[in-house]
Design brief:
CATH topology of chain B: Rossmann fold
Shape of chain A: globular
CATH architecture of the largest domain in chain A: 3-Layer(aba) Sandwich
Strand content of chain A: 15-25%
Largest sheet of chain B: 8 strands, mixed
Number of strands of chain A: 12
Shape of chain B: globular
CATH class of the largest domain in chain A: Alpha Beta
Radius of gyration of chain A: 20 Å
Distance between the termini of chain B: 29 Å
Structural class of chain B: alpha/beta
CATH architecture of chain B: 3-Layer(aba) Sandwich
Strand order of the largest sheet of chain A: 1-4-8-5-9-10-11-12
Radius of gyration of chain B: 16 Å
Strand content of chain B: 25-35%
CATH topology of the largest domain in chain A: Rossmann fold
Order of helices and strands of chain A: EEEEEEEEHHEHEHHHHHHHEHEH
CATH superfamily of chain B: Vaccinia Virus protein VP39
CATH class of chain B: Alpha Beta
Number of strands of chain B: 8
Distance between the termini of chain A: 48 Å
Helix content of chain A: 25-40%
Number of domains of chain A: 2
CATH superfamily of the largest domain in chain A: Alpha/Beta hydrolase fold, catalytic domain
Number of domains of chain B: 1
Oligomer: heterodimer
Chain lengths: 376, 198
């Protein structure tokens, strides 16, 4: 992938001590911005991406040539209106769209890291991204938001930097990765490492690509992003370009063909080792444990205004897990709003055209922005 | 804004912290926020109403008072408001206890089932009363535990809850309810408004 020219990077010179104990420095963070930062520098929104996202939030992703992952929500006149707000998003460390990750070369050995890359956490990701505020000279972000793993970063960020955001919008997320979430991630990792082309993570040196394993990981994960009802309505038992069953193991059903396609396009844009690292970071995420069993303590230093959003058919990060965040905030009298959006599109709802969700997000942001500006 | 909300709003001093339980479209919240500089939160069960509140820039939590009040710490609000919904809960007593736990004071309003129109309706028509403040048919009403102003006064006394202010609302007239006029107010008021604390 020749991606270099389309990717903006910031080299972080300051050493960053990772949760695993290692320290990294002089490492790149790849980022993208949309809209423009106003004179007061009070209109910035930091967006955090999910497991397979990247910094290209909206518009055409110059690397994949597809729409950005949050094109429905971010753009001119959209929920996160880039005519009004300055949107920043960066690729997480451990990722594969330019930020420091397992496909980078170890400066000491000049060999590709592979699994020698240090295991990173959600905490490490947000600590790395915090450097962007300094880079842009932003004292306080207007908002931080993200869904799924993006939501975990939102929670970790406001916990680490309580006075650096005015509004906080975690979406379809959790404060502590559940056993079921870990189980699905482990399934994906096992699929990758079981691929003989994975070569203990050294596939680049061996000129192989564990594409089959990565595709299976993506297929399994993709099912968890949808709802049973959504799948049934979209695919049912419809057959794929054939009149009848073929009594073989080709993709007879449309759902099989769809999943195979999802797996194959994913392999073209994602690095297998990054998938291992990022899913691990999600599994290790437990903000409750970080605060000795009391989630409220994660938020007691912030005066930010929270808005938590969940979706009815999301069984991966169900409403109750989002509500636990609301409960923790209410128990310390924090300013928190919460809405559960009706949608049969499963966990993926936050990425899709779900008008009730997009309206709520837009209204919350725009009203909060006006209000916070009037207070000055 | 309906008169009931004006009366409620007059009971609340400026700059206080208020929780509006069953805040609906946020009319009262918006008034309190804009005119009395009140830090106001809402709890609302209807998704549509929650969206309306968000569109008004109000902080609202989608939830059910019977389950979701427990997440608020003791005395975390100066006032907790419950407008014309106490009778719709499975257990009004538990909700009332919760209101008084979460709020330093509570303002509860109830549609008065003792109103003469209600009494006459049942007496002469022999069917469940339908009035301006009780517009639903018996089978579709959300109201499970209708009570009169007198019932509520007795209940509050029984529970040893302190009644700070008791008002009767009749179209646009507001008047104090006293021990002496309770019988009359219970006959003529549409609505009872109670400022209570425990």
């Amino acid at each position: 992938m020749n991606t270099e020219k389309n990717i903006k990077t910031l080299i972080i010179k300051k050493p960053l001590k990772l949760d695993c104990g290692k320290t990294i420095n002089n490492f790149p963070i790849a980022f993208e911005t949309y809209g423009s930062l106003n004179e007061n520098k009070d209109n910035a929104i930091l967006v955090f991406h999910a497991l397979t996202g990247d910094q290209f939030v909206t518009g055409l992703n110059p690397v994949t040539k597809k729409d950005g992952w949050w094109s429905f929500a971010v753009g001119p006149d959209k929920a996160i209106d880039t005519n009004k707000y300055f949107v920043i998003c960066s690729n997480v460390i451990g990722g594969c769209m330019g930020s420091y990750g397992p496909s980078h070369k170890d400066p000491e050995t000049q060999k590709t890291f592979g699994t020698d890359f240090p295991v990173i956490t959600i905490n490490d990701m947000v600590n790395a991204q915090y450097n962007l505020l300094e880079h842009f000279g932003i004292d306080k972000l207007f908002a931080i938001t993200g869904g799924s793993m993006g939501g975990m970063q939102v929670l970790q960020f406001i916990s680490n930097f309580p006075d650096k955001a005015k509004t906080v919008i975690p979406i379809a997320t959790t404060s502590s990765h559940s056993a079921q979430n870990i189980a699905f991630n482990e399934l994906g990792r096992q699929a990758i490492t079981a691929d003989s082309d994975w070569k203990d993570g050294n596939y680049e040196a061996n000129n192989t690509n564990p594409g089959k394993g990565l595709a299976v990981a993506r297929m399994a994960a993709h099912i968890t992003y949808l709802s049973k009802k959504g799948l049934q309505e979209k695919f049912g038992r419809k057959l794929q370009e054939r009149e009848d069953l073929k009594f073989g193991f080709d993709a007879d059903f449309q759902i099989e063909s769809y999943l195979r396609y999802q797996g194959s396009v994913f392999v073209d844009r994602f690095d297998a080792n990054s998938y291992l690292y990022i899913t691990r970071a999600m599994d290790y995420f437990d903000l409750v444990k970080q605060f000795n069993g009391n989630l409220s303590d994660a938020f007691k230093k912030t005066k930010a205004k929270f808005f938590v959003i969940s979706f009815t058919s999301d069984w991966l990060y169900p409403t109750q897990e989002n509500k636990d965040i609301v409960i923790a905030l209410n128990s310390i009298g924090a300013d928190v709003g919460f809405v559960e959006i009706v949608s049969d599109k499963g966990h993926d709802s936050f990425l899709l055209d779900v008008p009730d969700f997009l309206n709520a997000l837009k209204n919350f942001l725009d009203k909060s922005y006006t209000e916070l500006n009037n207070e000055k | 804004m309906k008169n009931e909300f004006k009366v409620i709003s007059d009971l609340i001093e400026d700059n206080k912290k208020v929780l509006d339980v069953g805040c609906a479209d946020g009319t009262l919240m918006q008034f309190l926020k804009e005119n009395k500089n009140i830090n106001v939160r809402g709890l609302e069960i209807s998704k549509e109403k929650v969206q309306e509140c968000i569109a008004k820039g109000l902080t609202v939590i989608e939830g059910n008072a019977e389950k979701d009040l427990k997440q608020f710490p003791d005395k975390s609000f100066d006032y907790v408001v419950l407008s014309q919904t106490l009778q719709a809960f499975l257990s009004p007593e538990i909700v009332l206890d919760e209101l008084l736990r979460v709020g330093k004071k509570a303002i509860v309003t109830i549609p008065n089932f003792g109103n003469w129109q209600v009494r006459l309706h049942l007496l002469f028509k022999g069917t469940m009363p339908i009035t301006k403040s009780l517009p639903e048919q018996w089978h579709s009403t959300p109201n499970l535990h209708m009570c009169t102003i007198k019932d509520f006064v007795n209940f509050v006394k029984f529970k040893e809850i302190k009644m700070i202010k008791t008002l009767a609302l009749n179209s646009n007239n507001t008047s104090n309810i006293t021990t002496n006029n309770l019988g009359t107010k219970n006959l003529f008021a549409d609505l009872g408004i109670f400022l209570i604390e425990k």
